[in-house]
């Protein structure tokens, strides 16, 4: 299915080349999804400290808890909604929810308004990012699934990095509000227009692939499953799906640490807003660009070993942040963290796509992303509590240890999901 396979379902063709125009458009839309998140990465932790005078780490990280919890729950329902109503309506709804977010970040008079903006941002990210993932999987078919996820995640996180750096530079010249968040307003308007006018429905591609799909040898993976059964299978029963779910949770747990604690640690050591912006951008930039290679690589050598290696590399990088006190050391740690995350992120999604039957794949992606993005809330609560009780360095060491343990759990418990491997 590399160059495109025509299926009996209304002449629909699967494959990257056959669907290149729509695939490219969805890459662009997902870049705007990442940009909406990037507008906060540098500025919001500093806004909590300098504008709203939040001294406790736990209080300052409430916006990440709100974002992560909301996004996780929305991810779960996004898959079900995509199966029931189609992909495009869910995508458009996600962008409608995004429109008030920059307005609230600019003019919110109290911290509660900022937290509410992140509830809306979590809904936006859960609906739009989940849907672009599902739509790309629909279009490319099984042969290039890892490559497709690499492009999807790369576009989002490169845009996140570019926006984090841009907002840091903007804030250093024009202040923390309102100028940095005007980028988010432009992103939301552009994405809503593209999603409404140019994006096409892809649900029929999934149905066409299901018609060609061989009968599963494992009865647990049969196409006729309830949402409850899919949730149990993805979370607990299937060793590959459950291993991917826990690894995804821990991955975003350490991303919450990078988002919420790292900028405050860097500021405490005297770094300027602009240099904090560079560090905040460096990690997702390496992560984003790296996925262009790692997604393709997982199609060649399989998923399991890349996931294991990536989690262990992340653990080393986080430990390096804990030991460092200077910009060059932290820059090296951010690069290493980006490499580790690039190995993990698209590969986990590809593994879910490998195992899940096309008839319930969207819901399996939703369950996986429920666990993965729940890691934001867990990470913010854990890191904030440990930082308040024992200091930020202890919180960073604890997350490094958890990340290493997750890598070993994948090595011991996950089976290889890719047929070529």
Give your account of this protein's structure.
With 421 residues, the chain is mostly helical. The protein has one domain (15-206, 221-413): Growth Hormone, Chain: A (Up-down Bundle). Helices cover 79% and strands 1% of the residues. It has helices at 20-41, 43-50, 57-60, 62-85, 87-98, 100-107, 111-140, 145-174, 182-197, 203-212, 227-237, 239-260, 262-268, 273-301, 304-323, 327-355, 361-390, 392-413; strands at residues 5-6, 13-14. The chain has a two-stranded antiparallel ribbon with strand order 1-2.
Write the CATH architecture name.
Up-down Bundle
Alpha-carbon Rg, integer: 20 Å
Sheet-strand content, in percent, reads: under 5%
- Given as residue ranges, the uncertain stretches (5+ residues, pLDDT < 50) are none
Mean pLDDT: 89
**Could you give me the name of the CATH homologous superfamily?**
MFS general substrate transporter like domains
Walk across the major sheet and give the strand order: 1-2
Reported for the largest beta sheet, the result is:
2 strands, antiparallel
What letter string, H or E per element, gives the SSE order? EEHHHHHHHHHHHHHHHHHH
Number of strands: 2
How many distinct helices? 18
Q: Give the CA-based shape.
A: globular
User: What do we call the CATH topology?
Assistant: Growth Hormone, Chain: A
Please tell me the total number of domains. Answer: 1
What secondary-structure arrangement, pairings included, does this model have?
Layout: E1 5-6, E2 13-14, H1 20-41, H2 43-50, H3 57-60, H4 62-85, H5 87-98, H6 100-107, H7 111-140, H8 145-174, H9 182-197, H10 203-212, H11 227-237, H12 239-260, H13 262-268, H14 273-301, H15 304-323, H16 327-355, H17 361-390, H18 392-413
Antiparallel strand pairs: 1-2
Helix pairs in contact: 1-7, 1-8, 1-9, 4-5, 4-7, 4-17, 5-7, 5-9, 6-7, 6-9, 7-8, 7-10, 7-17, 8-14, 8-16, 11-12, 11-17, 12-16, 12-17, 12-18, 13-14, 14-16, 15-16, 15-18, 16-17, 17-18
GO molecular function: transmembrane transporter activity
Pfam families: MFS_1 (PF07690)
Subcellular location: Cell membrane
